[in-house]
Design a protein that fits this description.
4 strands; four-stranded mixed sheet; alpha+beta
């Protein structure tokens, strides 16, 4: 097995980076979202974790991203780099796929 080194890098000056993750211990089931925000120097600036109700993994990953964007907006951070470990969630957002669950559309 080959080892791949993955290293976190800070965003460019004036930007914030948020790493998000969703958790669904038993799918479907009670779900949780979390995020950590860092500035361009790599310093911690904020974090949150919260229950997002009952859901499936893709729903929860998308909810985590949406909550992170809303949190950043409330803080006045308009330049935001979002990172997620869910390739499906990133692909959904990058390609404007219209599969966002109806209960997330109102966030």
């Amino acid at each position: 097995m080959e080892t791949i080194v993955i290293r976190w890098r800070p965003p460019q000056a004036g930007w914030y980076k948020v790493n998000v993750d969703g958790s669904v211990p038993n799918s479907p089931g009670p779900s949780f979202a979390g995020a950590i925000f860092r500035n361009s120097r790599g310093f911690f600036v904020a974090a949150f974790s919260k229950s997002v109700g009952w859901g499936y993994p893709l729903e929860v990953e998308l909810a985590s991203i949406l909550h992170a964007i809303l949190f950043a907006f409330d803080c006045g951070w308009t330049s935001l780099w979002v990172e997620s470990d869910s390739t499906m969630a990133i692909h959904t957002l990058q390609h404007h796929i219209q599969i966002v669950p109806w209960r997330l559309q109102g966030l």
